Automatic annotation (TrEMBL):
The keyword Cytoplasm applies. It holds the Pfam family CSD. It is found in: Cytoplasm. Keywords: Cytoplasm. Residues 1-66 form the CSD domain. InterPro entries: Cold_shock_CspA, CSD, CSP_DNA-bd, NA-bd_OB-fold. This is Cold-shock protein. The keyword Cytoplasm applies. Its main location: cytoplasm. Coiled coil: none annotated.
């Protein structure tokens, strides 16, 4: 599992970005990948853990959980 900080998350468009702790490019996060919260909303500055995958040649977070 990777860890990072939510850079921003737009509830109206259902996606945002995570800044990884280990550096590297920002990781996209989508509403349907958020688990562990009833409303699936992430907040700017919130710490999260996630599994990183590649989709269409860009990093995407899966199974995102607040920590």
């Amino acid at each position: 599992m990777n860890t990072g900080t939510v850079k921003w998350f737009n509830i109206h468009h259902a996606y945002g970005y995570i800044t990884p702790d280990e550096g590297g490019p920002e990781v996209a996060v989508y509403y349907d990948s958020v688990v562990g919260t009833e409303d699936r909303i992430l907040h700017e500055g919130q710490r999260v853990e996630y599994n990183q995958t590649l989709q269409e040649f860009r990093p995407v977070a899966e199974q995102v959980r607040p920590i």
